[in-house]
Amino acid sequence: MLNIVLFGPPGSGKGTQSEKLIEKFGLTHFSTGDMLRAELAAETELGLKAKSIMERGELVSDEIIIGMIRNKISGDSGSKGFIFDGFPRTVAQAEALDDLFDELGMKIDVMMGLEVEEQELINRLLKRGQDQGRADDNLDTIKNRIRVYQEQTAPVMGYYETRGKYRGVNGTGSIDDIFNRLCGILEGL
Length: 189
Ligand code: B4P
Hints:
The protein has 189 residues and is of the alpha/beta class. It has nine helices and five strands, in the order βαβαααβαβαααβα. It starts with a strand and ends with a helix. Bound molecules: BIS(adenosine)-5'-tetraphosphate (B4P).
């Protein structure tokens, strides 16, 4: 089994690179952002709760996120491995994932962090806002998402670093070049 956490600030390319890694390694994708957007589109109770939080660029509560992950992993135990994209986003989520994996006799092999300058993140997300019209891709919300990342999510890197599992990757350049850097890490594990 190969279990990966793909980490990085909003707009760093987690979703983009996850798609390519899934295709190459046959992994099951866990994007908490996609899962929340599906709840929103289906207008479930959870989706309605998450809507205004996401539009402000804040984090949805740990309790909701951990519940979603627990349900999905339990129904998917025959997988070749998992790729977590946009999760864990707080230290509490990282601890909950370790507890769940301990229960299931599984482990995270590596956290790969995509490192990208702030202005490049803003440019990418503004462009996606123009192309796809996502409600949280406007300048005010983007700046708040980056602030929330620095305050609440960046410490998750230290959590994996102290366990010897963090590998930083230059997240700037062509999508294929970045993908090759990520594959290099996985092939060297
Ligand atoms: P996410 O859906 O996870 O959104 P994201 O971090 O902004 O996007 P991502 O990083 O995957 O985008 P990508 O770079 O691939 O979260 C949205 C919201 O959901 C959060 O703000 C929060 O409210 C909530 N949420 C989600 N998970 C949560 C959790 N665990 N706990 C609490 N709340 C949670 O793509 C960005 C753009 O860059 C794309 O347009 C792409 O085409 C482009 N791009 C990618 N690579 C590029 C490259 N190399 N060069 C140029 N452009 C590139």
